[in-house]
Design goal:
With 497 residues, the protein is of the alpha/beta class. Helices cover 43% and strands 12% of the residues. The chain is built from 18 helices and ten strands. Strands 1, 2, 3, 4, 5, 6, 7, 8, 9 and 10 form a ten-stranded mixed beta sheet that branches. It starts with 23 loop residues before the first helix and ends in a 28-residue tail after the last strand. The relative contact order is 0.09.
Length: 497
Amino acid sequence: MAKKEKVVEPIFVPDTGRIQPQATDLERAVLGALMLEKDAFTNIGEMLRPECFYDKRHALIFTAISDLARRNDGMIDLLTVIEQLKQNGDLKAAGDVLYVSGLTNDLASSVHIESHAKIILQKHLARELIRFTGKIQGQAYDETVGIDDLMQEAEKDLFNIAQTNIKRDAIQINPIINDAMTSIKQAASNRGGLSGISSGFTGIDKITSGWQKSDLIIIAARPAMGKTAFVLSMAKNMAVDAKKPVAIFSLEMSNIQLINRLIANVCEIQGDKIKSGVLEKHEWEQLDTKIRELYDAPIYVDDTPSLSIFELRTKARSLVRTANIECLIIDYLQLMNSGEKNNSSREQEVSKISRSLKGLAKELNIPIIALSQLNRSVETRAGLEGKRPQLSDLRESGAIEQDADLVCFIHRPEVYGIKTDGEGNDLTNRAEIIVAKHRNGAIGEVWLWFKRSFTRFENIEGAGAFKEFDSSMNSQEPMPIIGANETFLNESEEVPF
């Protein structure tokens, strides 16, 4: 007498009385195909997980199949699946031998296994959305739950659900070559051979070829070096001069404070006068004239304090979609939070933030520039070379260095009372921009003017003195000082190491 199959009761959605989305017949067909076709798991293994199956028996059987696939021999058939279910202690719960073998008997063809798997995944995502909305609805009625915490949790859960539907396949090289050739031709047609967004600083663009799409750029310095002034100068160069839409997330300053600095930069009026409003008649005229450059500039400012990576992701996606943002600036990384309520260390939290920023840059296909603090190690070192930042000075996490495509340091020797270098060159109002890590190119240094009263960085006259080094060079070695009036090295000159 044949053993009667166990009937799995349908799950009903609370308050609706409706059966959840499901496709149990397709689940049976997919599992049968996996046990009959040699390469079936290779085609759908990355698409499905045990929780995608509505029938709990099917989830246990798929788990056994996945366990077999992970082994070196990887042999999957009816007998090995049954044996694996025994080892897992799940054979009885999976319907016993009769039910498992019945899955292969019912299969007519495995030709459409990928289409069937996609439908199973879609049903799973629909159930997850139902679960998600039910959970959020219940918590929204709970007055003990903070609305801000609930919104962050909702954003996190919804993002995780969306991620399960992302599947990037390997593609043949030809279309990638075509994209690369298009990029090269575009760079060739641009002035200066830039393939990315110009920073507006000639020496930096020479080394980087512009800020590249999908790159995470870390700009780090000790306090009072001018990190915010530097990125605002770049934002002005990009948005006002080059008309490239830029978004600035200011976690440290309010949007009014940030724009006041930008006004001082563009209008060339001292920052304290902008703050106090005590301007001479000619300065008011200058303000009225030059501030017109800022009106309608494609600069978007968000001053949300303690921004979480989940909030940033949502806002950034919206800005790219609605305003065609081409560059994202974050001031600064250590003021962000991961949005998770756990007891992980600050170093682990910063590591997660930096990884998420790199992932976001890749997803949105734009450069993300994040400011970062340096630790106090710089203060303990003596001399001009001792005060120059190193990669090991990055604060709180080595993951920042690992995740970043570029790491740049801002160093102003005069902040430490160093007014001249060893050769007597004047370092007053000079800022050294050190490209210490460059994943896809050379490293080097660039010298810029820093106009404190206008909180503005400018190219040094004569194209901006810089020194470029081969990317294989150890970035910790001292880089020689270049005088303000020296121009770019000729390509024929030998670069000292």
